[in-house]
Specification:
Largest sheet: 5 strands, mixed
Bound molecules: 5'-O-[(R)-(carboxyoxy)(hydroxy)phosphoryl]adenosine, zinc ion
Shape: globular
CATH superfamily of the largest domain: ATPase, nucleotide binding domain
Strand content: 15-25%
Number of domains: 2
Radius of gyration: 21 Å
Distance between the termini: 26 Å
Helix content: 25-40%
Structural class: alpha/beta
Number of strands: 12
Oligomer: single chain
CATH topology of the largest domain: Nucleotidyltransferase, domain 5
CATH architecture of the largest domain: 2-Layer Sandwich
Length: 396
């Protein structure tokens, strides 16, 4: 089954053709980063206009790269929630026009589901979905999925460590060879510009939110801290790059005390702001956008590295707590733009990560998620009635 996936929820115009939810035949992403780097952030109206210009050429290229004609496409999948209203509109209106024109079933997909399913798609630029940190890769292809390698070694070693520390938690997973695809039940750590959640998945297409941020999302926090440090938009990759030359132990930031499996990141952002003010010797009333002028490159690198370490540690701590509460967990998958972060990948060597090229927004993950939705009985939407939801939970 060949599905055309269309994604326009934020500032990437993307389309891809994926076969059977797994094999990427094409994956075209046009990013608007260049435009928004000038402004230091996304301007929704500009994003929508850029999508409008790019969407049809992007879809044409996705079909051409996949060597497909419209007759070869079995369904169209489009992101309809959550995201920027104008951006979502361009994708859904285009998808519905094409569905009507070419008489294709149309599926409306939730953006976070798509991010999670980026862990299943392979091929094209997405050769390997596994974290490279501390792992041994076997050259054996996985069950007819060329490019996907089976991973050898212990599984969820981090969890076993918790088990040792907390002997009362009856939780132990040991597998000599783990499958190339995540297995259920699983926990998904969703880390993006708009969301920070831990999801429990009993099965395909079953999502239960067991932890969520009570304020800022992690990606948003990276972006805001980057601004304080004078690093370019988007902040996540800029911080990761600057951190390479920094000392992660230079500054210590407190971890928020949030109940259960929920997160909070606004305090961390403020803690960085206060530490920078202290470092350069200005009062807390000093305008934050001027701080960058007082920082030297080494200080920027040290703040970037120390902040990144704190952010990653907070994620890992909560994930470990979640694993303690869900002892039947078979796999951990990480999803969303922040899953591109190398420090996070190294901190979770036993988890599944999308190929870095599929961590950010793309159409392949939309098509992938759609395939598994269809498998679990989800029906197409009426193209004349498709709706967008800028803010809606994955559980709805
Ligand atoms: O998933 P995504 O592309 O868009 C949303 O659905 O929000 O995530 C974008 C977020 C941005 O906040 C960006 O700064 C962050 O992902 N990001 C990173 C990295 N690459 C992108 N954060 C940390 N490290 C990275 N390497
Ligand atoms: Zn996203």
């Amino acid at each position: 089954m060949k599905i055309l996936g269309i994604e326009t929820s934020c500032d990437e115009t993307a389309a891809a053709v994926v076969e059977d939810g797994i094999k990427i035949l094409s994956n075209v992403v046009v990013s608007q980063i260049d435009i928004f780097a000038e402004y230091g952030g996304v301007i929704p109206e500009v994003a929508a206009r850029s999508h409008l210009e790019a969407i049809l050429p992007v879809i044409d290229k996705a079909l051409a790269d996949a060597r497909c004609r419209w007759g070869d496409i079995d369904a169209i999948a489009v992101t309809h929630a959550p995201g920027l209203l104008g951006s979502l509109l361009i994708g859904t209106l285009t998808a519905r026009a094409l569905a009507i024109l070419y008489d294709k079933p149309l599926y409306a997909v939730h953006h976070l589901k798509s991010h999670v399913y980026a862990n299943w798609v392979i091929g094209g630029q997405a050769e390997s979905v596994l974290s490279s940190a501390g792992l041994e890769f076997s050259s054996t292809s996985y069950a007819g999925h060329p490019g996907k390698t089976a991973r050898k070694g212990s599984f969820l070693g981090a969890v076993r460590n918790i088990r040792v520390e907390n002997p009362n938690q009856g939780f132990m997973l040991q597998k000599e060879q783990i499958p190339a695809c995540p297995t259920f039940p699983l926990l998904a750590l969703v880390v993006s510009g708009g969301h920070t959640q831990i999801l429990h998945m009993q099965e395909h297409n079953q999502f239960e939110i067991i932890g969520t941020t009570i304020d800022d999302a992690i990606g948003e926090c990276f972006d805001k801290v980057a601004k304080i440090l004078g690093l370019p938009y988007p902040g996540g990759p800029s911080i990761a790059k600057a951190a390479l030359d920094g000392d992660a132990g230079k500054y210590e930031f407190p971890h928020p005390k949030v109940d259960g499996l929920d997160f909070s990141f606004s305090g961390l952002k403020t803690a960085v702001l206060r530490a920078v003010q202290k470092e350069v010797g200005v009062p807390i009333s000093y305008p934050s956008h001027k701080l960058k002028e007082l920082l030297n490159p080494q200080q920027v690198a040290d703040f970037a590295a120390s902040f990144q370490k704190a952010a990653v540690d907070i994620l890992v701590e909560k994930l470990e707590k979640a694993l303690g509460q869900y002892p039947d967990t078979q796999s951990v998958v990480v999803a969303g733009g922040v899953s591109a972060n190398q420090a996070l990948r190294e901190a979770l060597p036993e988890a599944y990560f999308p190929s870095p090229s599929l961590s950010g927004d793309n159409g392949a993950m939309v098509a992938g998620a759609c395939f598994f939705e269809i498998q679990s009985g989800v029906k197409p939407v009426d193209p004349y009635k498709i709706n967008i939801y800028p803010r809606i939970s994955i559980e709805k």
